[in-house]
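Task: sequence design from structure.
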C-alpha cells in the first residue's frame, strides 16, 4: 500500500476520533448546562411560589391590621361620644353615674356664663378652676375615706402610698410647669388659668378612679358629697 495514502488515512482517522471526542465532551457539557438551567428554573419557580404565598400572607395581615385599626377607631369614637368612664371595667352603669354628676353640670353652667360675658377677667377664670378643684378634692377625700374603712391594713397602706405618690406628682409637675413655663410667660396671660385647668382635670380623673374602686365592690355606695353640701 502506498505509504502516502496510508498516512492520509491515519490522519483522517485521528481527526475523526478527535471530532467524536469533542462532540462527546460538548454534549456532556450541554447536558450539564441543561441540568443546571432546569435546577435554576425549578429554584426560580419555587422562589416565585414562596413570594406569591408571602404576598398573600402580607395582604391578609395588612387587611387584619386595617380591620383592627378600624375597630380601635370605632371603639375610641364610641367611647368619646358616650363619655365612657372606667379604666378597669368599662361598665355603662358607672359611666351613667359620672355623666349625671352635679359637679360637672354646675361647672358647665358657670363656664358658659363666663364665656358669654364680654368683661370676664383672667382672675375670674382662675377662680372658677380653683373652685372646682376644691369640689373634686372633696369627692376624692370622701372616696378615700370610704375605701380606707373597707380595706384591710395592707391594702389601706398600699392605697395611702399610691395617693401620696399621686399628690407628689401633681405638686411636682405644677411647680415645674409653673416655674419653667407659666411664670416665664411662655403660655401667655392665660398661663395660670391653664395650669389650674390641668390640675382640675387630673383631680377630677383621680376622684373618678377612686369612685370606680368603690363601684367595683358595691354599686350602691357611689355618691357625690357635693349633693349633700348644696
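Answer:
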Amino acid at each position: 500500500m502506498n505509504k502516502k495514502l496510508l498516512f492520509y488515512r491515519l490522519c483522517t482517522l485521528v481527526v475523526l476520533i478527535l471530532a467524536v471526542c469533542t462532540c462527546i465532551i460538548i454534549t456532556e457539557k450541554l447536558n450539564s448546562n441543561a441540568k443546571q438551567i432546569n435546577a435554576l428554573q425549578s429554584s426560580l419557580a419555587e422562589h416565585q411560589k414562596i413570594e406569591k404565598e408571602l404576598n398573600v400572607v402580607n395582604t391578609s395581615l395588612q387587611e387584619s391590621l386595617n380591620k383592627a385599626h378600624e375597630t380601635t377607631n370605632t371603639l375610641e369614637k364610641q367611647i368619646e361620644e358616650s363619655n365612657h368612664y372606667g379604666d378597669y371595667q368599662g361598665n355603662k352603669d358607672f359611666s351613667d353615674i359620672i355623666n349625671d354628676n352635679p359637679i360637672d353640670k354646675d361647672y358647665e353652667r358657670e363656664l358658659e356664663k363666663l364665656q358669654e360675658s364680654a368683661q370676664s377677667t383672667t382672675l375670674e377664670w382662675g377662680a372658677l378652676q380653683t373652685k372646682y378643684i376644691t369640689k373634686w378634692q372633696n369627692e376624692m377625700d370622701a372616696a378615700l375615706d370610704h375605701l380606707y374603712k373597707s380595706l384591710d391594713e395592707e391594702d389601706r397602706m398600699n392605697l395611702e402610698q399610691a395617693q401620696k405618690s399621686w399628690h407628689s406628682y401633681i405638686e411636682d409637675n405644677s411647680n415645674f410647669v409653673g416655674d419653667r413655663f407659666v411664670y416665664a410667660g411662655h403660655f401667655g396671660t392665660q398661663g395660670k388659668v391653664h395650669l389650674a385647668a390641668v390640675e382640675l382635670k387630673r383631680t377630677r380623673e383621680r376622684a373618678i378612679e377612686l369612685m370606680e374602686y368603690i363601684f367595683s365592690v358595691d354599686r350602691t355606695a357611689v355618691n357625690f358629697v357635693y349633693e349633700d353640701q348644696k
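Residues 85-229 form one domain.
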